[in-house]
Design a protein that fits this description.
The chain is about 25% helix and about 20% strand. Strand 2 (about 50-55), helix 1 and strand 3 (about 80-85) form a beta-alpha-beta unit. About 50% of the residues are buried. The protein has helices spanning about 60-75, 95-105, 135-145, 195-205, 210-230, and strands spanning about 25, 50-55, 80-85, 110-115, 120, 125, 130-135, 150-155, 175, 240. The protein has one domain: Rossmann fold, CATH 3.40.50. The strands form 2 sheets. A 6-stranded mixed beta sheet has the order 3-2-4-8-9-10, with helices on both faces. A 4-stranded mixed beta sheet has the order 1-7-6-5. Residues about 1-15 and about 20-35 have low confidence and may be disordered. By secondary structure, it is α/β, with parallel strands linked by helices. Pfam families: Peptidase_C13. GO terms for molecular function: peptidase activity. This is Peptidase C13 family protein. InterPro entries: Peptidase_C13. Keywords: Signal.
Length: about 250
């Protein structure tokens, strides 16, 4: 079990994962092919390609989340894991250009993309070049990089429900978000080890068999944690399961 984060209620607002207003990354237009509607329940661990992004280095919680997740995926047998961070350099620095390039080349029999950062209703924040990465850019890049392959996308940020919309919902995609479009998420303060959503997500990986198990368990965990800490305006994690991946298993499960 990961260490529970003890905070007083007054600190919850300062720990909410909201950036200052910054420039939005322009979307790119990419021709999209039809996604396969054939149900898929399992992909071998070696067939999964993962991309993990910690978008802001002003809190250790984001880097802690992707570092731990990288180790957990590795223990499941996933070998192709790319990590982008605000504390990295060169091609792995979490800039909009590097993240876009990475998404466009994820590949694999199945794609797993996890982003943890601050966010707003326009998208998630990348501090390295002070850009907002929005749903249109993510959708276009995933279409190019993952195509019709089973794709799991997790966005752990305030207002991240904005990434579930009519364009991003595809039969081959699972999309999980830490908050509804009009809600903040919590646990991104300087003293937090993990964001609340990341902490709960990581906890579910031990016993879950399917991504639906992970999603439901994470949502329940976040709700319990927020009640215990006295959060009045809860984050309301969101989820979408495409028809072709409704029962998709975790790697090796």
């Amino acid at each position: 079990m990961f260490q529970r984060i003890a905070v007083v209620v007054v600190a919850l607002l300062t720990a909410a994962c909201v950036p200052s207003s910054e420039e939005t990354l322009p979307s790119t237009q990419v021709a999209s092919g039809p996604a396969s509607s054939q149900p898929v329940t399992s992909v071998p661990p070696a067939g999964w390609h993962a991309m993990l992004v910690a978008g802001d280095n002003n809190s250790p919680a984001f880097d802690n989340g992707v570092d731990t997740l990288r180790d957990r995926l590795g223990s499941m047998g996933v070998r192709d894991i790319r990590l982008y961070s605000g504390t990295s350099s060169g091609t792995t620095l979490a800039t909009s250009a590097n993240v876009l390039r990475g998404l466009r080349s994820v590949g694999g029999e199945a794609c797993f993309v996890y982003v943890t950062s601050h966010g707003e209703e326009r998208g998630f924040y990348l501090r390295a070049d002070r850009r907002i990465f929005g749903p249109d850019a993510l959708n276009s890049a995933l279409t190019e990089g993952c195509g019709a392959a089973p794709t799991v996308v997790v966005v752990s940020a305030c207002h991240s429900g904005t990434f579930i919309n009519s364009e991003t919902r595809r039969p081959n995609r699972i999309i999980l978000t830490a908050a509804a479009t009009d809600r903040t998420s919590f646990g991104c303060g300087a003293d937090d080890d993990y964001t609340y959503y990341d902490q709960c997500f990581l906890q579910q990986l031990d016993g879950a068999r399917t991504w639906r198990d992970v999603a439901l368990g994470t949502k329940s965990c976040v709700e319990t944690l927020e009640r215990r800490l006295g959060v009045r305006r809860e984050s309301r994690p969101q989820m979408f399961f495409g028809s072709a991946v409704a029962d998709l298993h975790l790697p090796g499960r």
